[in-house]
Amino acid sequence: MRDLLDLYLPLCAGGEDGGWVVGHLGQSLDGCIATHLGESCFVTGPDNILHLHRMRALCDAVVVGAGTVASDDPRLTTRLVAGPSPVRVVLDPGGRLGDGYRLFRDDAAPTLLCTAAGKGGGRRHDRVERLELPADADGLRLHALVGALAERGLRRLFVEGGGVTVSRCLTAGVLSRLQLAVAPLIIGQGRPGVSLPRTERLADALRLTPRIFRMGVDVLYDLDLAAAADAGADLAASPAAQGTLLRVL
Q1: Full-prediction pTM beyond 0.85?
Q2: What is the pLDDT of residue 150?
């Protein structure tokens, strides 16, 4: 129980404005999140899957890229915990996804389809809400995305995948935390997890101090990218934060 409190209480309290953006990837020992064909269910074990559901229950919105929807057809709900399902946000800059995927038709939670301006009109998605955002050659502008979601009251964002989306968020500097769950699995020549611009010198690399949590046979590295010196110092005394956490544990 102490580990659970240590892991989740900082998220229950939120950041300075009550919000945060947490990225998560489940990967093998050799840094792959899927085979080269895209098979990824499941790289990590049941304890980490439970963690994903808890994270969904603690966030306002869960964010995934179009590639994750196309490969995994996820539901992104809180089926394994008692907390509410978040708004499901799908980043599909080119409007390539059809309406046959489960999260577009199951009505299990509100779904927001984000496309580049002028790119979303070619597909029918009658049961989801559309949001057009500015984009560039790399995809949707992520700071604009975070701002648009905040205007809708969605301030606690969980970026659940895939590797391209989480890596773009990390490069753009929109993540508050990064969680890497490492499974005792070697895939070999699979799809990489975190992929960042090349670093020439180790001195220029992003070196972080992780908090480490065991999740069954998996190991979760929780990385505070904001690196606030007093992060979580007074959380244990917050009844509101504890109440939020107890509902999803």
Answers
A1: yes
A2: 96
Tokens found for residue 189: 């020549």
Q: Is residue 227 part of a domain?
A: yes
The CA distance from 148 to 188, in Å, is 39
Q: Domain span at residue 83? A: 2-6+25-193+208-246
Please report the pLDDT score of residue 227 as a whole number.
66
Instruction: Tell me, yes or no, whether 18 lies in a domain.
Output: no
**Where residue 103 sits, what CATH number does that domain have?**
3.40.430.10
Residue 247 clears pLDDT 60, i.e. is over it = no
Report the number of distinct structural domains present in the chain: 1
Classify residue 130: in a domain, yes or no: yes
